[in-house]
């Protein structure tokens, strides 16, 4: 990470804040550098962000809370399975 001078002291540059979906999916973790993995993670993060925005735009209900939590888990599971599938070498 680059640093910039601020009053004589080096201050690390801040990377842009990740969205909830990007954090949930872990879009910055791709040790293989595989572009297919990046794309799958981007898509899953976008799905999570769309659902999260809708969740926060309406009154919370017990059923809505359960569905939201389940949906986030399924998005994570789907992303992990898709990455596993496209990177499987066996």
Q: What can you see in these coordinates?
A:
There is one protein chain. With 90 residues, the protein is mainly alpha-helical. The chain has one domain (17-87). It is built from three helices and two strands, in the order E-E-H-H-H. Strands 1-2 form a two-stranded antiparallel ribbon. The chain starts with a strand and ends with a helix. 11% of the residues are buried.
Low-confidence stretches: 1-6
Number of helices: 3
Strand content: 5-15%
Helical content (DSSP H or I, runs of 4+) = 55-70%
Estimated structural class: mainly alpha
Element string (H = helix, E = strand): EEHHH
The total number of structural domains is: 1
Query: What form results from the Cα inertia axes?
Result: flat
Descriptors:
mainly alpha; 60% helix; 2 strands; flat
What is shown here, in short?
With 90 residues, this protein is mainly α. It has one domain (17-87).
Write the layout of secondary structure elements.
Layout: E1 3-6, E2 9-12, H1 20-25, H2 35-56, H3 62-87
């Amino acid at each position: 990470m680059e640093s910039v001078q601020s009053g004589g002291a080096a201050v690390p540059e801040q990377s842009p804040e990740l969205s909830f979906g990007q954090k949930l999916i872990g879009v910055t973790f791709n040790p293989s550098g595989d572009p297919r993995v990046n794309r799958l993670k981007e898509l899953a993060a976008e799905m999570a962000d769309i659902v999260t925005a809708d969740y926060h735009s309406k009154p919370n209900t017990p059923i809505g809370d359960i569905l939201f939590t389940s949906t986030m888990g399924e998005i994570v599971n789907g992303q992990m399975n898709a990455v596993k599938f496209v990177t499987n070498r066996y």
